[in-house]
Amino acid sequence: MCLSLPCIELGKPLVFAYCVFPEDSNEDLFWFPSGEQLLCEASTVLKYVQEDSCQRGIYGKLVCTDFKIAFLGDDESALDNDEAQFKNKVIGENDITLHCVDQIYGVFDEKKKPLFGQLKKYPEKLIIHCKDLRVFHFGLRYTKEEEVKRIVSGIIHHTQAPKLLKRLFLFSYAAAAQNNTATDPKNHTVMFDTLKDWCWELERTKGNVKYKAVSVNEGYKVCVRLPAYFVVPISLPEEDVLRFQGHGIPIWCWSCHNGCALLKMSALPKEQDDGSLQIQKSFLDGIYKTIHRPPYEIVKTEDLSTNFLSLQDIQTAYSKFKQLFLIDNSTEFWDTDIKWFSLLENSSWLDIIRRCLKKAIEIAECLEAQNMNVLLLEENASDLCCLISSLVQVMMDPHCRTRVGFQSLVQKEWIMGGHCFLDRCNHLRQSDKEEVPVFLLFLDCVWQLVHQHPPAFDFTETYLTVLSDSLYLPIFSTFFFNSPHQKDINMGREHQDTQSKPLNLLTVWDWSVQFEPKAQMLLKNPLYVEKPKLDKGQRKGMRFKHQRQLSLPLTQSKSSPKRGFFREETDHLIKNLLGKRISKLINSSDELQDNFREFYDSWHSKPTDYHGLLLPHIEGPEIKVWAQRYLRWIPEAQILGGGRVATMSKLLEMMEEVERLQEKIEERHHSQGALPAEGPSLLRSSARLSSLFPFALLQRHSSKPVLPTSGWKALGDEDDLAKREDEFVDLGDV
């Protein structure tokens, strides 16, 4: 096979490049984003199919640019129209962004070894594990030696060497596409980068009675960690915000329908001097009085730094968990399948998800049933605070279960909340210790809710999956900065008086950049139960409360305790904020457990109101593996013509039938019927789809037997099992 990339020079910008195949094949164009530069390449590379022998594959050219690693080869078969509709327009099936590379391995004399730094000997096969859990095998046996050295060294260097922020492809793309950054007019996501956005959110949640949006940090004059605008209690003087550069300040997250609020606070700097400690204690005492005014307002503190998960726990659990899905071949899959449940339990990832959901339910119980404000405490209030506050809002606020509402929530709590995406995703490759998948943990927790209560969400699990993939796409600025200040200063927006025009990047919320309109239909849930619109008569006298509240236990607000207790509670808050650990919370664990169990059981004993409070089941078997994200690249894990996609297809058929009947009824009444809403046509023929649709369409189906061969020798050898497999008939092909 003859492959070439004309008009490409190493180190020169690319507008686009294409690959020419033999005369008997079709010519395909391979487009590169604006500003992309070719760094190194190798010809006659074999991309293996994931099978035991690893002898089958496709020959082509392997290239490395400053944006991605790409394999340019001739497909075995042309994609059908349905499959092509869900292709990502930015990243192809054989493309890996440099930020998506997790580990690189080389095979030397059939032994797999991790590759780092300068190599003395070069491998005959290159294996790349990706952060989206894809696994690529590239054979280099027939590639020229010089090209092998160049491509292997180039890939290792550009995916592992520490980088400077300004050297990321993000900035090259922004400069090259400066005049081509049109946004989707249908994107109504609230970005929370103006004072007006925060005032709108306060008004939406009825929080403007007790809280105010402030611009004291405009231009980041007070603190580079906080956004330019945020919300604090009305009674809080603005000079208090200036006192410790935004630390120790209760920052508003969300207001409940009953007037209670969810707040967060970062710890004050640790001081050794007794005088400084006394000053901090007096300051916090005053702050506490602004939010804790019994019997009208009672605050419960939740210290997430000392009484909850650690970032190390999350990192360790996910490191073990992801190894279950980075499968090199079918043999490895079947060997690990026998001990799958024990490996899954040992990773503790599902247990961490359960603990996060349980903590969010506990906080929802305080807000909803006990009418208490909740103050989340964390050292910087930018990791676990983002996670738990977002989960609470998804459970309690139906607006956050719409796509626009969910995207606005991510903007408010994660982007403007100062979550360090640059460090937590390790985009600069500067510290593996800082890489912790906190945002992915949040998406996994949300998926548990989507999986258990599908009609309550406007978006699908496919939406959550492609959102997790977008963490590693450096053409969007959304997930590539540690704070709004870092973004503004590097994009040239902090000083508007400069002559240079500030860079303008797309946000990840403009889905038209990645997907065609037909593919975007798979991001919207056709079974979403929209909130019914009430007429004026129904609206009159209506109280803004969750319908679910009528079924909750009538827990009275706690009576005003003695004065000494307030002193103890204040000291408890101060000790936490000053970094001193305490042995237990003021509330006994037994009391918390009793309240939680009563609240949890009462909610699940009633019919679900999809536009009210929404709680997940957190019992052992109810917390499941997010199959679409984690198993989508493993052919052996697919169920052809089955799974949730088959159920969804049948439901859509029923919906269409009901709509047709309804249209006929309306026609008989001589009224013009509305056109039926069209569901995703990609789901029409479920028999030919996989349970991991729409991603599994790109995968070759495994020819391995259903039973694991290594642990079941008594059932016969592999040849016997293969013969038995041939006896089955695929009904989808009949």
From TrEMBL:
Compartment annotation: Cytoplasm, Myofibril, Sarcomere; Sarcoplasmic reticulum
Signal peptide annotation: none
Organism of derivation: Canis lupus dingo (dingo)
InterPro entries, alphabetized: MTMR12-like_C, MTMR12_PTP, Myotubularin, Myotubularin-like_Pase_dom, PH-like_dom_sf, Prot-tyrosine_phosphatase-like
Domain Myotubularin phosphatase: 192-630
The protein, known as: Myotubularin-related protein 12
Gene Ontology CC, one term: sarcoplasmic reticulum
Coiled coil stretches, renumbered: 644-671
Function: Acts as an adapter for the myotubularin-related phosphatases. Regulates phosphatase MTM1 protein stability and possibly its intracellular location. By stabilizing MTM1 protein levels, required for skeletal muscle maintenance but not for myogenesis.
One GO biological process term: phosphatidylinositol dephosphorylation
Gene3D superfamilies attached to this UniProt entry: Pleckstrin-homology domain (PH domain)/Phosphotyrosine-binding domain (PTB)
Entry keywords, A to Z: Coiled coil, Cytoplasm, Sarcoplasmic reticulum
Assembly and oligomerization: Heterodimer with lipid phosphatase MTM1. Heterodimer with lipid phosphatase MTMR2.
Assigned protein family: Belongs to the protein-tyrosine phosphatase family. Non-receptor class myotubularin subfamily.
Keyword DNA damage set for record: no
